[in-house]
Specification:
The chain is an all-alpha fold. It is 64% helix and 0% strand. Helix 2 packs antiparallel against helix 10, helix 3 runs parallel beside helix 5 and helix 4 crosses helix 5. The longest helix has 28 residues. The termini are far apart.
């Protein structure tokens, strides 16, 4: 009888994955936070120490809301996995450095409580919490979310000014910053969109640590580049060639931040490589359509949100094709 019980005990299994690894949610989230540090440091250098205060406030408030929700509903405490802290940091990176801190706290509440916890917590949200929090802030506080501080090193007495995409939307082509300035980060905008090189360094670090796959970022950024290259080849801009304008579009706005750090979210993006390619292309396509033909100069947040909603459908289609391919 004892041997029979031992035999049954050996048949007890758990759900996948079964790979033994030191990697867990906490380490993944901590690695992504570390990857965002270069961009955060550039933001502090360009806009001042208030950037750090805003980032800390959003991270602490997001962690508090997660802790409080779990405690209120007597759920297992998950604040230690750092997913809430990462969400808060991403919200801070997606807003102007001058945004009142209490508004950042509101965005954290929306992201953690409404988008994440009400749907069951980490792994169950169907859209990216930080992206949704950012969009809610934009709709609720349009003036504060569209008031962009100028860099400290700018040769002007003005405290605020349009972003590069703002100049583009106004057809002020002569005021567009150089691609080098956008690559290094000496431009106005949200904290996380000013320095392409800092974001690329963080992205390469995540790929090296195998936290993210380069598929979605490459498909996203590549689609934006190719489509804008085609557009400006057919619609030339005085003083700028098509290649320069295509490069402008991948360096300006939130393309780098969105493609590397937000469109690669494990939960809200497709699982198979073919689905990830579709997802990245879709994000790039929607971004370009909004930028070139809509009244809003930026489209990254909306493109990722819309493709998050399409992810279940993409998974269904790509899984069916994958299974059929295996059967053949």
């Amino acid at each position: 009888m004892d041997n029979k019980n031992k035999f049954h005990d050996n048949l007890i299994v758990s759900s996948a994955p079964h790979i033994v690894s030191d990697t867990d949610t906490t380490r993944v989230m901590a690695t992504v936070i570390v990857a965002l540090v270069p961009a955060l440091c550039v933001g502090i250098y360009v806009f001042g120490i208030r950037v750090l205060a805003l980032a800390i406030a959003c991270m602490l408030s997001s962690s508090f809301f997660e802790w409080g929700y779990n405690r209120l509903l007597k759920r297992p405490q998950t604040v230690g996995d750092l997913s809430a802290a990462l969400t808060g940091l991403l919200i801070a990176m997606n807003v102007p450095s001058t945004l009142p801190i209490w508004m950042g706290v509101v965005g954290s509440f929306v992201a953690i409580v409404i988008v994440k916890q009400l749907y069951g917590g980490i792994g169950r949200n169907f859209v990216n919490p930080a992206i949704t929090g950012r969009i809610v802030l934009f709709i609720s506080f349009a003036s504060e979310m569209s008031t962009w501080p100028v860099p400290k090193m700018a040769d002007t007495d003005a405290l605020t000014g349009p972003t590069p995409l703002g100049h583009l939307a106004a057809k002020e082509f002569e005021k567009l910053p150089s691609n080098l300035d956008m690559f290094l980060g000496f431009i106005g905008g949200s904290v996380g969109e000013v320095s392409a090189i800092a974001l690329i360094i963080g992205g390469l670090f995540l790929v090296w640590k195998k936290i993210i796959s380069p598929v979605i970022p490459c498909a996203f950024i590549g689609t934006v580049f190719v489509l804008t290259l085609i557009y400006y080849s057919a619609n030339p801009v005085s003083g700028h060639n098509a290649f320069s304008m295509a490069l402008f579009h991948i360096l300006a706005g939130g393309v780098m931040l969105g493609a590397i750090f937000m469109a690669t979210d494990y939960v809200t993006t497709p699982k198979l490589t073919s689905g990830q390619i579709i997802f990245g292309i879709g994000c790039g396509l929607i971004t370009v359509v909004i930028r070139l033909w809509a009244s809003y100069p930026e489209g990254v947040s909306f493109s990722i949100l819309l493709m998050n909603i399409c992810t279940p459908l993409i998974n269904r289609v790509t899984f069916k094709r994958y299974i059929k391919g295996g059967a053949k």
